[in-house]
UniProtKB/TrEMBL annotation:
Residues spanning the membrane: 12-34
One Gene Ontology biological process: cell wall organization
Species for this entry: Prevotella corporis
Recorded family membership: Belongs to the glycosyltransferase 51 family.
GO molecular function: pentosyltransferase activity; peptidoglycan glycosyltransferase activity
Xref: HAMAP family: PGT_MtgA (MF_00766)
Protein known as: Biosynthetic peptidoglycan transglycosylase
Gene name of the encoded protein: mtgA
């Protein structure tokens, strides 16, 4: 009986492993129209008695302004092009600030980690979810190019209440297609990303304007995002 149970467990673990690999391989090539985050937000809206809002339109990286990847790297992950999914320098610095200065421990999630979480996992904080996030981050860094990770990130990231991806954000908040966003517009969108349901790129306040100026200055030190070869 014990052998049968162990066999079922091994078979189940093997199937889960194979299915995750397959999902990552498939998502390397096809547009991702829905994510767990989108479904989660829709259920939240329904449970709160609100109308369901879901604005999302997939576009390739080539149809986004060149400033958009640069802006999110300046805001969220300045070593995106050089790390392999995890920014150990940022993690070490955050730990030092927490231990020496008593500052609140920052998350320090990279663009790769945020992409893995948004596309493959549920929201929330637990060791199980964090472990799976690490696993999927490793997989996408191994199987996807940096260009594909950025493309998926900019199409799936939450950019407002019910707004996902740069094309939907451009249409809802600026009334234009993403390709027509200015450098300043891109920096403003990036400024909202720590909390896009609290901060709006449509009606930015003084804090957002300050963040915008900071990101525009940081963008000067970020290299142009390379094309995929």
């Amino acid at each position: 009986m014990v052998k049968k149970v162990l066999k079922v467990i091994r078979w189940s673990v093997g199937m889960i492993f194979v299915s995750t690999i397959l999902a990552v391989v498939v998502y390397r090539f096809i547009p991702i129209y829905f994510t767990p985050l989108m479904f989660s937000r829709c259920f939240e809206q329904m449970s709160n008695g609100e109308d369901v809002k879901l604005y999302h339109e997939w576009i390739p990286l080539s149809e986004m302004p060149k400033s958009m990847p640069v802006a999110v790297m300046a805001s969220e992950d300045q070593r995106f092009l050089t790390h392999h999914g995890f920014d150990y320098q940022a993690i070490e610095q955050a730990a030092k600030e927490h231990l020496m200065d008593g500052k609140k421990l920052r998350g320090g999630s990279t663009i790769s980690q945020q992409t893995a979480k948004n596309v493959f996992l549920w929201q929330g904080r637990s060791w199980v979810r964090k472990g799976l996030e690490t696993y999927f981050t490793f997989l996408i860094e191994m199987m996807w190019s940096k260009q594909r990770i950025m493309e998926v990130y900019l199409n799936s990231i939450e950019m407002g209440d019910g707004i996902y991806g740069v094309q939907a954000c451009a249409k809802q908040n600026f009334g234009i297609d993403a390709k027509n966003l200015s450098r300043g517009d891109c920096a403003l969108i990036a400024a909202t990303l720590p909390n896009p349901r609290r901060f709006s790129s449509k009606s930015p306040g003084p804090y957002m304007r300050k963040r915008l100026r900071q990101i525009e200055n940081q963008m000067k030190n970020i290299p142009a995002f390379p094309k995929e070869h």
